[in-house]
Every structure is written in C-alpha cells, then in structure tokens.
Design a protein that fits this description.
With 343 residues, the protein is an alpha+beta fold. It is built from nine helices and 20 strands.
C-alpha cells in the first residue's frame, strides 16, 4: 500500500477552460474531423499548458465512462393509433462512423451531466452517471434522492429510507410495500397487527409484531436482515424464518443463503455512517455514490479491486476521496458537476 499525496500535482483548471476541453473532445470523438479542425485543435492545445492539461483530464473521464455512454439512450418512435397499448420494442443505436446530430447532442448531455431530458425523438432511460433519477423512480409512491434519508409511517409501521430508494404501495390496496430499488428499514410496534408484507425481488417478507428488518435491493445485491424480533421470508415453495442478526441473500430465482451476520455495518447508514470491512474498492465507490452528489469514477488498473476497510461519515463523505488518495496513492481529478476521477 502506498502513502503518497498526488493531488498537488494536478493543476487547478478553471471551469471555463474545462468546458472548452469538453467541447474539443466531443467535436473530435463524435463527428468527421477535417484538416482545418485538427489544425485549430493543435493551435488551441499549444496556446497554454493548461489547455493540454484540461484536455487530458476530460479525455481520461471520457475513457472511464465509455461503457455507460454507449448505453445511455435509446431512440423512441411515437406510437401510431394502432400500436397504442401494444408492446414497444426499442433498440440501442448502432455504432457507426457517421452519427446523427441528435445522437451526438444527447451523448454530449450525458457526458456533461446536464439534464434528464433529451432532444426530440430521444429519451434518457438510464443515467450514465446515476446523476438523475430514472423514469421509473420518478413515478414511485415513495422516493429518496442521492444522499437523502427519509422517515415515514406506512400502515403504522415506522420506515426509514436510505438514499436513492424507491418503494410502491401494493396495487390491490393491501397493507404492505414493495421495495423496487435501494434500502429501507421497517420497525413494527409490539402490538402491531400481523399482515404487513414487504415485497422485494419476487419474495415476500412478513415481519412479526416487534420486529425490525433491513431490506436492501441494489442491483443484484438483494439482502434481507432481521435486526430484532423475527420475520418470515417466502420465495416460491420455500419459507425461511429469520431471527435477530440473521440475514438471507436472494438470487433471481431463489433464496441463496441464510446465515448470521454482524449487524453494525448493516445498521450504520441509519446512524449516519457507512462501514466497510475488506470489500473491493469498486463496491465501496458504488455505495458512496448513492450518498454523494455527483459521481466518483475509478479508472483502470488494479485500483477497483483493492480491498478497503473504512468508516465514513455521511456528513463528510468526501473524506473517502482523501482516504483513497492517501492510502493507495491515487491521482484525484476533479471535474464539473461533482464528478471525481480516481486513477
């Protein structure tokens, strides 16, 4: 493990100059380049050492975000009267040498993190940086934004929602909730009436009166932890009873494992902390990004697989960036919009 500070070697580049570098990068990457364009870029880059440094920064970010940029948008055709109500199929635009002007503009918006709306005929279905809510989240009955924690009552159940969480009421009006994305805790009073059901990833969780449970559904990471009392977990033909400090992990089609766990790390977010114990740095960054405005991006090498043990306060979450810089000798590049590139 290295212990070196490299931030001081990164020049302080004005925002206006960063924008110029972004314009040049997008011009060179997303359209035919003439000899006159190449000569103009050469003159701009040679005009000041900061110009070259700014272009190098945005190019590193572009390379790091390439996979997300490829899948950020899909073309959408307005349905005709005969197709209303029918299934609509959308396809990613084929890569090619010549890109439509509106496709280039949308990739520009995604790269700059500017807006969720796009040019006419296009729709953002997934934010490439996770910097704005997806369309499905905007329609949820309950939703929290990046970094937001929320407490509420649902059918006399005390609920605490972690950042970037979406939940919906059952369509049939029954007492309960569906967690579609994110993380939340549910605490039932000791005299609560049984029947409150939590749906998550095709499973049903029935906490007993007096129980407190943590439900996490972040991508493919689906975990249900009983923090107090007991709860029944049903998936297909299998039923599992979770006692306090026991956790079940769910895969797409089954309950994958049931085991005792240390609950401190699971309960930490509700108390204003993120705890990590020997976890890959990429996993840690993904979790930190749920609570931090902007985006932290890891670029290249073995850095994403480095193991991390850390205790990070949500109120000072950018101390995590200092930790990675100091512990691993990572270079820190600050970009507009709260985007930070670690390499």
């Amino acid at each position: 493990m290295k212990d070196m500070n490299t931030t001081s070697s990164v020049p302080n580049i004005p925002t206006e100059l960063q924008a110029q570098a972004q314009d040049w990068l997008l011009r060179l990457q997303t359209g035919p380049v003439t000899a006159a364009d190449a000569e103009a870029f050469r003159r701009w880059r040679a005009r000041d050492p900061l110009h070259a440094a700014a272009f190098a920064q945005v190019r590193r970010l572009w390379v790091a975000l390439a996979p997300a940029m490829q899948t950020a948008v899909v073309p959408v055709t307005a349905p005709s009267p005969t197709t209303v109500g029918a299934a609509v199929t959308v396809a990613l635009p084929a890569s090619g040498r010549h890109r439509p002007r509106h496709a280039v503009n949308l990739r520009r918006r995604a790269f700059l993190g500017g807006a969720a709306a796009a040019a006419a005929g296009w729709m953002v279905v997934r934010s490439p940086l996770g910097m704005w809510p997806e369309l499905s989240a905007l329609a949820a009955d309950y939703r929290t934004a990046t970094g937001e924690l929320r407490t509420l009552k649902i059918a006399d159940v005390d609920v605490t929602m972690a950042a970037r969480t979406t939940m919906n009421r059952p369509a049939d009006g029954s007492p309960g909730i569906e967690v579609s994305e994110g993380e939340a805790q549910f605490a039932l009073q000791a005299d609560a009436v049984q029947g409150f059901t939590i749906a998550v990833a095709g499973a049903r969780l029935l906490p007993a009166p007096g129980a407190r449970v943590n439900v996490r559904c972040v991508g493919t990471d689906v975990r249900i932890t009983c923090l107090a009392g007991r709860a029944q977990l049903l998936r297909g033909a299998r039923t599992v009873v979770l006692e306090a400090a026991w956790q079940a992990r769910l895969l797409e089609d089954r309950i994958a494992s049931v085991a005792p766990v240390a609950t401190d790390a699971i309960d930490a977010w509700r108390n204003g902390w993120l705890l990590f114990d020997d976890q890959p740095l990429q996993d840690v960054v993904d979790e930190v990004n749920r609570y931090r405005t902007g985006r932290i991006v890891l670029a290249g090498g073995a850095l994403p697989q480095r193991r991390v043990q850390a205790r990070i306060p949500l109120e000072r979450i950018d101390t995590f960036i200092d930790l990675v810089r100091d512990a691993y000798g990572a270079k820190v590049v600050n970009m507009p919009g709260g985007v930070v590139l670690l390499s």
